[in-house]
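Q: I have 168 residues here and want to know how they pack in 3D. Can you give me a structure?
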Amino acid sequence: MTRTATIAKLIVPVVFAAALVAVFAADSGTAKSMSKQAVVRTANNPTLHTKVLVNRKGLTLYSLSVEQRGRFICTGSCLSLWTPLVVPKGTTPTGALHLGTVRRPDGRAQVSYRGRPVYTFTQDRKPGDVKGNGFKDVGVWRPASPASSGNTAPPAPSPYPGYPGYGG
């Protein structure tokens, strides 16, 4: 047998085995569970005079004061005003410190900042809008901000009067 034929016999099984490992890893979700996705960034907000977290489109991200430690309040009709920032399961959100994910009641993976789920407000139409800041219902909505001591921006006057809660 020639040297070339011997090398070919050794290489073919190795390549085949590597291909099988790649197929099974992708099929089992292992490849997905390692994905990272830049979905958040910080931006200076001219209205609040501070940095806030924004999504890829530059829209302000908010958190609800009473949503913490895996407790979801914004479900049902709340979702008509507040849109959860979600990522595919197994994705690690990137773009700012202290990001993570929490599992929504419907099973989707929602991006969280300092443990609180983040949302966009449907009435914010362009980058820089903070129309949801100070919105009151079962808690208070504030822009997520790395510039403050907690995870919320300084309060600003809200154009909305108190709104009865809308959970479940």
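Q: Anything worth noting?
A: The radius of gyration is 22 Å. Residues 12-32, 151-168 have pLDDT under 50 and may be disordered.
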